Amino acid sequence: MVTSLEQIRNPFFIGVAGAGMSAIAQYLQGVGKNVSGSDRFFNEGKAGDIKEKLEAEGIRCFLQNGDGITPDTDLVVASTAIEDTVEEIRKAKALNIPVIRRSELLALIAASKKTIAVGGTSGKSTTTGMLFDILQQGGLQPSVISGAGLVTLIKKGKIGNAFVGAGEWLVIEADESDGSIVQYHPEVGLLLNIEKDHKELDELMQVFETFRNNSNRFCVNRSNEHSRKLSADAANDFCVDENCTGAGFRATGFEQNGFQISFALNGQPFELKLLGRHNMENAVAAATAAALAGVSLETAAIALKQYEGIYRRAQVLGQKNGVWVVDDFAHNPVKCAAAIRSCQPVSDKVVAWFQPHGYTPTKFLRKEFVEEIGNALRAQDEIWMSEIFYAGGTTTKDISAGDLINDLKALGKKAYFVENRDELLTTAGSHLQPGTTLLLMGARDPSLEQFAKKIYSEL
């Protein structure tokens, strides 16, 4: 039984190329552990440059065949996607090596620091990145473990989703999809929002209530009808609606001018080079949590004016032939709708493309996808979808992205199905006129970044 980081010397990560796993692997390497790992994407040659970046940090990478696990390995870490039938799990058990899940290890790491845990259905990665930048600007020398790379760290040749600072504060992205958020006991718990995603609302409310009860201090978004029900202290809460009252931190005066937003938080002006009201919400959340850690709103505004963003979160690839191309990680109904709306102020027309991931979650959220995307589209906007991304494993392929498109067509929306995404430009090219924004959305598929760059280069 592993109960502290001090017991760990030679951990091995199964699925080390994943966003969540690679972040913890880098963190442990950064605090002096001898880290190694494997990934099936290494076997398939689909890991991009992640393997090279991990190896540059000193993390040894192996094919997912069991060779990387030796008698010297003292801990095996597996993501929730790794089944017990995987060869490496069987080998670890044969060697009596403890096996724990990623969330258990992250809980041990969080317990070793003054942790701010960022929870909620949407916006966790962006808010985590913003909060890290604010604490850095405030001189707190924080560490971070995120689900996505920070552009400032990526520019230094890193994956960008983890950093070990010299200070006592740690910012983590706390995941509710597998219920692991209930394992953390943070100094500050931050709840962004609650919407149906992965789980039904009633179950999510119970999960986030435990998160609240485990937090020393807790702040919630009072503008979200579900999260405000879990408020612990209104003075620590924030809101972004003009009519919202009672919160200690209140945003007003939102404006979007091109690819820049501005607002005031308790009278302090903020400007960010980002799109959409949802990013004001993320920024307000980050500034609020930072204030609870002792960083002023003025310092937060300085930090966020320089904020460079998160990997594949509303990343503007550029403009070509009068068409803007934006790459976004949006993958649940609310996120897709927010991404579409964020592009509308700069576009005569938005042509949005979406690749759903996972047959089970797509079927679970079919109604919500259709409602949220349908409500976000203006009369001139379009939604295109390609077939659902299948990452492997046991599943029933009993739904198609084409089913969602047919539902949207039934609502009178301009909706199109292009099964093979490589045919997107050929099929949709005539729809991309000057003044259009092409918004590319999807998650989990490691090839999406290269797909977006290919679309932009061939536009």
Automatic annotation (TrEMBL):
The keyword Cell cycle applies. It comes from the Bacteria. The keyword Cell division applies. Residues 118-290 form the Mur ligase central domain. InterPro entries: Mur-like_cat_sf, Mur_ligase_C, Mur_ligase_C_dom_sf, Mur_ligase_cen, Mur_ligase_N, MurCDEF_pg_biosynth. Residues 13-113 form the Mur ligase N-terminal catalytic domain. Keywords: ATP-binding, Cell cycle, Cell division, Cell shape, Cell wall biogenesis/degradation, Ligase, Nucleotide-binding, Peptidoglycan synthesis. GO terms for molecular function: ligase activity. Coiled coil: none annotated. Residues 312-444 form the Mur ligase C-terminal domain. Pfam families: Mur_ligase, Mur_ligase_C, Mur_ligase_M. PANTHER family: UDP-N-ACETYLMURAMATE--L-ALANINE LIGASE, UDP-N-ACETYLMURAMATE--L-ALANINE LIGASE-RELATED. This is Mur ligase domain-containing protein. The lineage of its organism: Bacteria, Pseudomonadati, Bacteroidota, Chitinophagia, Chitinophagales.
